[in-house]
């Protein structure tokens, strides 16, 4: 007899679906996701890092500009500097200038207020700007308004309208470098936006350009052509908001009081006793600034005695070396750590092309210290070079009895005054001596040497915040593409790419139908 199988187990009755609890949980989840997104957007909008992914970091400000934006000249202002960028969006450099201006505003931490105005999109605001500054705005321009008071933007003197000294107009044309091709057509060859914007910002804050006098009757430098050494020196100073004004030392009773610096460049002839007295009287002022660029081979006893009395002696030699039996006249060396304004360049190597002579620098000399004179070497030549006193004879070789051995300096600084006193440090006199002028020639230009020159000028004028590695001009590049290559690229863009996407679309459509 077969046993009966047990009855199948009975399933418990299904519990009723609680739609209210499921809906509540879903709503809470949606709210939490929404709050998380809002929190992430809030934090990312205030705490973020910008990364410049361009090949040459074209949108990253230079250390010198960043240092100036963080200095007291800007951060200590009670009122921010107003920038009004009046550009059309169709302008060739609109996007590049806008991004660069935004980077200035971001790095200034609110001390630069940027407003972008397009005459086509904002005609009412354009009319307000034109009325406020009495400008036509026919060309792309950035208006930098550095006024801290309620002074008028435009004043009238003798029937002539003049902008306030603390309002600077930066034209887009000034940011673009142009060259002429073989057909005589003028084309854009480079972009120097950061140079021009920083110079304009300094002008808007200071209210005027600093004036440095060039002793023209003693200075001899080629001034012909757009790329001459004179033009390079002038443009380098102009980008530091410094004007180079020529003046004759002969017959001058004293250096004018409004001069904030004096430049003596490539002197060919020595000073007279009267001229030397004028220079010494200027150097004895509580705050003087001297830039001296020397050419090797010129015998200038009075000028040499003046420099030697301040701890720096130009030596009658030529800095050379011999490598593999070949005579090397391009002096190589490194920038020193002796002075603070060189901290960006300190330890970096460079070369001074052309003729260079050496400088004897009496660092830490006791007799100079008692007179509060402190000379420092700024550019030291590397081992292997020496100062040849009989250069040009054809059998140059180091002679320890006649020639000058290491250490050799090509550039030096002199500070006179109480440099250790915080209260009196701003009243010190400063001097820069460089025993080479060929580095200003177009064929010899090196970026680090121009940065050194710009930093030296800013240090002389008391603008340490602008010293350091400066901005780089951006160049344009032309790709040499043949007609056949252009046709091949056009076929890829106009035929092959569209055909690939059509084929992919047909495959996806066919698979879905199947």
Write up what this structure looks like.
By secondary structure, the chain is of the alpha+beta class. It folds into two domains: about 55-210 and about 465-495, 3-Layer(aba) Sandwich (Glutaredoxin); about 210-460, 3-Layer(aba) Sandwich (Rossmann fold), CATH 3.40.50. Helices cover about 30% and strands about 20% of the residues. It contains twelve helices and 23 strands. The strands form six sheets. The chain has a nine-stranded mixed sheet with strand order 10-9-11-12-22-21-19-16-17. The chain has a four-stranded mixed sheet with strand order 2-1-3-6, covered by helices on one side. The protein has a three-stranded antiparallel sheet with strand order 7-8-23, with no helix packed on it. The mean pLDDT is about 85.
Number of domains: 2
In spatial order, strands of the major sheet run 10-9-11-12-22-21-19-16-17
CATH class of the largest domain: Alpha Beta
CATH fold topology of the largest domain = Rossmann fold
Count of strand segments: 23
The rough form would be described as elongated
Alpha carbon gyration radius: 33 Å
Q: Could you outline the blueprint of secondary structure elements for this entry?
A:
Elements: H1 19-46, H2 63-69, H3 72-75, E1 81-86, H4 94-107, E2 112-117, H5 123-133, E3 141-145, E4 154-157, E5 160-163, E6 167-171, E7 176-180, E8 186-191, H6 193-206, E9 210-215, H7 229-238, E10 242-247, E11 261-265, H8 273-283, E12 289-293, H9 301-309, E13 312-314, E14 318-323, E15 326-328, E16 331-335, E17 349-352, E18 359-361, H10 366-370, E19 373-381, E20 386-388, E21 409-416, E22 429-434, H11 447-460, E23 474-475, H12 483-513
Parallel strand pairs: 1-2, 9-10, 9-11, 11-12, 12-22
Antiparallel strand pairs: 1-3, 3-6, 4-5, 7-8, 8-23, 13-18, 14-15, 14-20, 16-17, 16-19, 19-21, 21-22
């Amino acid at each position: 007899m077969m046993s009966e199988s047990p009855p199948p187990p009975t399933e418990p009755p299904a519990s009723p679906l609680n739609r209210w609890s499921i809906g509540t949980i879903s709503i809470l989840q949606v709210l939490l996701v929404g709050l998380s997104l809002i929190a992430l957007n809030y934090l990312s909008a205030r705490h973020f890092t910008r990364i410049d992914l361009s090949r040459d970091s074209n949108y990253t400000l230079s250390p010198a500009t960043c240092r100036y934006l963080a200095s007291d000249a800007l951060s200590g202002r009670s009122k921010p500097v107003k920038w009004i960028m009046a550009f059309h969006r169709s302008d060739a450099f609109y996007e590049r200038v806008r991004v660069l201006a935004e980077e200035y505003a971001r790095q200034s931490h609110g001390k630069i207020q940027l407003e972008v105005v397009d005459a086509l999109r904002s005609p009412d605001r354009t009319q307000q700007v034109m009325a406020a500054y009495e400008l036509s705005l026919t060309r792309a321009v950035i208006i930098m308004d550095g006024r801290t008071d309620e002074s008028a933007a435009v004043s009238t003197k003798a029937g002539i309208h003049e902008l306030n000294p603390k309002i600077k107009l930066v034209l887009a044309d000034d940011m673009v470098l142009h060259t002429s091709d073989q057909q005589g057509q003028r084309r854009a060859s480079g972009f120097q936006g950061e140079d021009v914007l920083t110079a304009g910002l300094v002008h808007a804050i200071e209210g005027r350009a600093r004036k440095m006098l060039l002793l023209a009757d003693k200075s001899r430098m080629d001034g012909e052509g757009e790329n001459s050494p004179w033009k390079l020196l002038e443009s380098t100073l102009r980008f530091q908001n410094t004007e180079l004004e020529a003046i004759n030392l002969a017959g001058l009773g004293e250096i004018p009081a409004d001069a904030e610096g004096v430049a003596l460049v490539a002197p060919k002839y020595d000073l007279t006793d009267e001229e030397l007295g004028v220079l010494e009287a200027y150097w004895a002022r509580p705050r003087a600034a001297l830039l001296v660029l020397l050419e090797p081979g010129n015998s200038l006893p009075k000028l040499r005695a003046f420099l030697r009395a301040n701890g720096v002696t130009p030596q009658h030699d030529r800095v050379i070396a011999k490598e593999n039996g070949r005579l090397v006249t391009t002096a190589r060396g490194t920038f020193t750590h002796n002075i603070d304004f060189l901290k960006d360049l300190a330890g970096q190597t460079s070369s001074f092309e052309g003729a260079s002579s050496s400088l004897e620098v009496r660092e830490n000399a006791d007799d100079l210290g008692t007179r509060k004179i402190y000379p420092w070497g700024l550019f030291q030549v590397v081992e292997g070079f020496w100062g040849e006193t009989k250069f040009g004879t054809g059998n140059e070789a180091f002679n320890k009895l006649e020639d000058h051995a290491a250490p050799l300096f090509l550039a030096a600084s002199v500070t006179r005054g109480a440099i250790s006193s915080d209260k009196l440090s701003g009243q010190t006199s400063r001097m820069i001596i460089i025993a080479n002028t060929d580095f200003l020639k177009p064929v010899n230009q090196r970026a680090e040497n121009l940065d050194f020159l710009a930093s030296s000028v800013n240090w002389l004028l008391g603008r340490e915040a602008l010293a350091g590695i400066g901005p780089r001009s951006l160049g344009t590049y032309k790709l040499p593409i043949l007609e056949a290559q252009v046709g091949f690229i056009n076929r890829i863009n106009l035929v092959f790419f569209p055909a690939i996407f059509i084929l992919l679309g047909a495959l996806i459509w066919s698979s879905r139908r199947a």
